[in-house]
C-alpha cells in the first residue's frame, strides 16, 4: 500500500508560502483587506476549503475578526500591507496587553522602493512600540517554516506575533519541500474579562504582565534557531535580516553572518557574541537603521549605512557600495508611467471633472491615476478614506469655490463611509463622486461588500452604496454611467450650484470584470485634423506616430467609444468586422 504523502516539492511565492505554512500550522480563520504586496496571502488561503478565509472592509476589521477567532480557540491570521497596519494599530496595541487564546499572527508586507505604495514605512519599528515579537523570513521557504513557529510563539508567550515580509519575498518564487501535515489545535473559549476586557483596572496588570512576557521573549530570541550564526571568514561579519540577508550573502559569500529571523526582541547577547568573533562588523538591512541603532545603544561597534540608503531597496551591488562607504546614487526615472486601462470607466469621469475645472480631493485606487497629465483632474491623495474629510475641511475654509471629492467603491466602504457620515453630520455641502467599478481594481480585482460575492466565491448580501449614502445623511444621491459625459457634466453643474451635500455615483464595470469587446474603432486619416483631443484621453490604444499620424491599436481597443465622443471632426468610427486584421 502506498504511504500517504507527507512532503511535497512546491514552487511558491513568499505570499503563497505564508498561506501554505498557515494551513499546515492549522490556521482555521484568516481575514484581510487587499493591499499590494500582501494580497495573494488571502487569495491563496481563500482556495483552501479546510479553513474560513474572508475579505474584511478594512484592516482594523480584518484584525478584529481574526482576533475573535483566536479568542474562540482557533489559530487565526490577518494580513495587510504596511499602511494597512496603521489602520489596524488600535487593536494591535491593546491585544498585546490582553494576549491570545489560540495563536494569532499579523502578517505585514512592507514595500521598500514603493512599487505600489504611498510611503515605505518600516514595520519593524512597530514591534518595540507595540511590545510584540517580530519574525522576519528572508525567503519563501523561510516564510513557510517561520509561520508555524510564529503560532507556537504566540501561544507560548500569550501574545500576537508580527510577521514581516517585503515585496521581494512576497513576490519571489522558490522551490522547496513542504511538509503537508496539518496541525489540529483547538482550544476552548475562555470567559476571562480580566484578560479580554481592557478597562483600566484590568489593563494595568496586563501591561505589567506584557513587560514580563517581553523579558521571556528576550530570552527566547537569544536561543531560538531563527537567529543563527554562520561562521566563515572571520575578517568580515554581517548582521542581516529579511531579504537583505540574501543580498549580503550573494555579495560576500565567504563572510560570517548573524541572520536575524526574529529581530525583536533583539538578541543582544547573541549580537555581542557574534561581534566578538569577527574583525569588522557590518549591519545590512533595508530601510530604517533598526538593528544598527540597537547595536549603537548597546555599545557594539558596527558599520551601518549612510542615511541615503534608508530610501528604497537594496541589492547585492548596493551591499558592496555600503561596505565601501559610498552614498546611494540618485535613482534613474522609471521608464514606463502608469496608465488607466483601455475602456476604463474612470477616464470619462475624469475628463468631465477636468472640464468642470473643480479642485478634486482624491483617494487611493486606480482612479488616483486621474492625477497624471493629460487627465490631470485629481489634486490630493494621501491615504485611504481621506478624500471626503479633505473635501469637508477645504469646503468649510474656502469662500465660493467648492471642492469635489472622488473615491472608489472599495475605498468608500473601507473608510470613506466614516468621512461621509462625519461630513453630513457637520453640515458639509458640495459634491462627492463615488467611482463604482464594482471591484477592488487597483490590487488586481478583489470582491468587496459592494459586489455581492465573497473571497471564497459564495453569493452573499450586497451592500447598496446608494442606500448607505442616503442613510449617512447625503441630501441627494444620483447614479449614472460615466460614459454619458454630457449627462454627467450637466448633473455636476446642477449639483455644484445647489446648497446641498450630494453624492453622484458614476457606475460602470471595470474592464477587468467586463472583458467584453463590443467593437473596435479606427481613425480616418483624411478627416483627422490632429487636434489631439483623443490623445488627451490618455488611452493606451490611441497612438501618435513620429509622423504625427494618430491611429488606434486594434489589439488594445475595447470599443468604449470615448474617442468617438470627443472627436469634433467625425474622424473616428467603428471598424467594420471584415476590415479587422
Ligand atoms: C490602508 C490601505 N490599505 C490598502 C491599500 C491598497 N489599496 C489601495 S487602493 C485600494 C482599493 C481600490 O479599490 P477602489 O476604491 O474600488 O478603486 P479602484 O482601484 O477599483 O478604482 C487598495 C486595496 C492602501 N493603499 N492602503
Shape: globular
Bound molecules: thiamine diphosphate
Say how many strands there are: 21
Q: Tell me the domain tally.
A: 4
> What is the arithmetic mean of pLDDT?
95
In brief:
The chain contains 20 helices and 21 strands. By secondary structure, the protein is of the alpha/beta class. It starts with 6 loop residues before the first strand and ends in a 7-residue tail after the last strand.
Write the layout of secondary structure elements.
Layout lengths: L6 E7 H11 L4 E4 L7 H7 L5 E4 L3 H13 L4 E6 H6 L1 H10 L5 E7 L15 H5 L3 E2 L4 H18 L3 E6 H4 L2 E7 L13 H4 L3 H24 L3 E4 L2 E8 L2 H9 L3 E6 L7 H10 L2 E5 L5 H8 L18 H8 L22 H11 L2 E3 L25 H11 L5 E6 H17 L4 E7 L28 H8 L3 E5 L4 H13 L3 E7 L13 E3 L18 E3 L5 E3 L9 H5 L5 E3 L7
Parallel strand pairs: 2-3, 2-4, 4-5, 5-7, 6-7, 10-11, 10-12, 13-14, 14-15, 15-17, 16-17
Antiparallel strand pairs: 1-8, 9-11, 18-21, 19-20
The structure holds thiamine diphosphate.
Question: What does this 3D model show about the protein?
Answer:
The protein is of the alpha/beta class and 581 residues long. The chain has four domains: 7-223, 3-Layer(aba) Sandwich (Rossmann fold); 227-323, Rossmann fold (3-Layer(aba) Sandwich), CATH 3.40.50; 346-507, Rossmann fold, CATH 3.40.50; 521-579, 2-Layer Sandwich (Alpha-Beta Plaits). Helices cover 35% and strands 18% of the residues. The protein contains 20 helices and 21 strands. The strands form six sheets. A six-stranded parallel beta sheet has the order 3-2-4-5-7-6, sandwiched between helices. Helix 16 links the parallel strand 13 (359-361) and strand 14. Helix 3 (59-71) runs parallel beside helix 5 and helix 11 packs across helix 14 (316-323). The radius of gyration is 27 Å and the shape is globular. The model has no long low-confidence stretch (mean pLDDT 95). Residues 33-35, 59, 81, 83-84, 87, 364-367, 384, 408-411, 437, 439-443 line the site of thiamine diphosphate (TPP).
Amino acid at each position: 500500500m502506498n504511504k500517504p504523502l507527507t512532503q511535497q516539492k512546491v514552487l511558491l511565492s513568499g505570499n503563497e508560502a505564508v498561506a501554505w505554512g498557515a494551513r499546515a500550522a492549522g490556521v482555521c480563520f484568516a481575514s484581510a483587506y487587499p493591499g499590494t504586496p500582501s494580497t495573494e496571502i488571502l487569495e491563496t488561503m481563500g482556495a483552501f476549503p479546510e479553513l474560513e478565509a474572508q475579505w474584511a472592509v478594512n484592516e482594523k476589521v480584518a484584525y478584529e475578526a481574526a482576533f475573535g477567532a483566536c479568542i474562540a480557540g482557533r489559530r487565526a491570521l490577518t494580513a495587510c500591507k504596511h499602511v494597512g497596519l496603521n489602520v489596524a494599530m488600535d487593536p494591535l496595541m491593546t491585544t498585546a496587553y490582553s494576549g491570545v487564546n489560540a495563536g494569532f499572527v499579523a502578517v505585514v508586507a512592507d514595500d521598500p522602493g514603493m512599487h505600489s505604495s504611498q510611503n515605505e514605512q518600516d514595520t519593524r519599528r512597530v514591534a518595540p512600540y507595540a511590545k510584540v515579537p517580530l519574525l522576519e523570513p528572508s525567503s519563501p521557504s523561510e516564510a513557510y517554516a517561520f509561520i508555524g513557529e510564529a503560532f507556537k510563539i504566540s501561544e507560548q508567550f500569550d501574545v500576537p506575533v508580527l510577521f514581516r515580509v517585503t515585496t521581494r519575498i512576497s513576490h519571489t518564487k522558490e522551490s522547496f519541500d513542504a511538509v503537508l501535515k496539518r496541525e489540529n489545535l483547538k482550544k476552548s473559549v475562555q470567559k476571562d474579562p480580566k484578560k479580554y476586557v481592557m478597562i483600566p483596572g484590568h489593563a494595568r496588570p496586563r501591561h505589567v504582565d506584557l513587560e514580563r512576557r517581553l523579558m521571556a521573549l528576550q530570552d527566547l530570541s537569544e536561543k531560538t534557531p531563527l537567529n543563527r550564526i554562520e561562521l566563515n571568514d572571520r575578517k568580515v561579519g554581517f548582521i542581516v535580516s529579511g531579504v537583505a540577508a540574501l543580498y549580503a550573502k550573494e555579495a560576500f559569500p565567504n563572510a560570517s553572518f548573524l541572520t536575524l529571523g526574529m529581530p525583536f526582541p533583539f538578541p543582544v547577547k547573541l549580537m555581542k557574541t557574534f561581534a566578538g568573533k569577527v574583525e569588522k562588523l557590518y549591519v545590512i538591512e533595508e530601510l530604517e537603521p533598526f538593528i544598527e541603532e540597537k547595536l549603537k545603544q548597546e555599545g557594539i561597534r558596527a558599520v551601518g549605512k549612510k542615511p541615503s540608503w534608508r530610501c528604497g531597496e537594496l541589492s547585492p551591488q548596493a551591499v558592496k557600495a555600503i561596505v565601501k562607504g559610498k552614498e546611494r546614487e540618485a535613482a534613474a526615472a522609471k521608464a514606463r508611467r502608469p496608465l488607466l486601462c483601455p475602456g476604463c470607466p474612470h477616464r470619462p469621469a475624469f475628463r468631465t471633472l477636468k472640464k468642470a475645472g473643480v479642485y478634486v480631493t482624491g483617494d487611493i485606487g486606480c482612479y488616483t491615476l486621474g492625477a497624471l497629465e493629460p487627465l490631470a483632474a485629481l489634486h490630493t491623495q494621501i491615504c485611504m478614506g481621506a478624500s471626503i474629510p479633505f473635501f469637508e475641511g477645504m469646503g468649510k475654509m474656502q469662500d465660493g469655490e467648492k471642492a469635489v471629492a472622488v473615491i472608489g467603491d472599495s475605498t468608500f466602504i473601507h473608510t470613506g463611509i466614516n468621512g461621509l457620515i462625519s461630513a453630513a453630520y457637520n453640515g458639509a455641502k458640495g459634491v462627492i463622486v463615488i467611482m463604482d467599478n464594482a471591484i477592488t481594481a487597483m490590487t488586481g480585482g478583489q470582491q468587496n461588500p459592494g459586489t455581492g460575492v465573497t473571497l471564497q466565491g459564495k453569493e452573499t448580501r450586497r451592500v447598496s452604496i446608494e442606500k448607505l449614502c442616503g442613510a449617512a445623511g447625503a441630501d441627494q444621491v444620483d447614479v449614472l454611467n460615466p460614459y454619458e459625459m454630457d449627462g454627467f457634466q450637466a448633473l455636476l453643474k446642477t449639483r455644484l450650484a445647489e446648497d446641498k451635500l450630494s453624492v453622484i455615483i458614476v457606475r460602470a464595470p471595470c474592464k477587468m470584470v467586463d472583458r467584453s469587446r463590443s467593437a473596435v474603432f479606427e481613425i480616418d486619416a483624411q478627416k483627422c485634423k490632429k487636434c489631439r483631443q483623443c490623445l488627451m484621453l490618455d488611452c493606451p490604444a490611441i497612438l501618435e506616430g513620429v509622423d504625427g499620424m494618430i491611429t488606434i491599436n486594434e489589439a488594445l481597443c475595447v470599443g468604449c467609444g470615448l474617442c468617438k465622443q470627443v472627436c469634433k471632426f467625425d474622424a473616428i468610427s467603428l471598424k467594420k468586422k471584415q476590415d479587422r486584421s
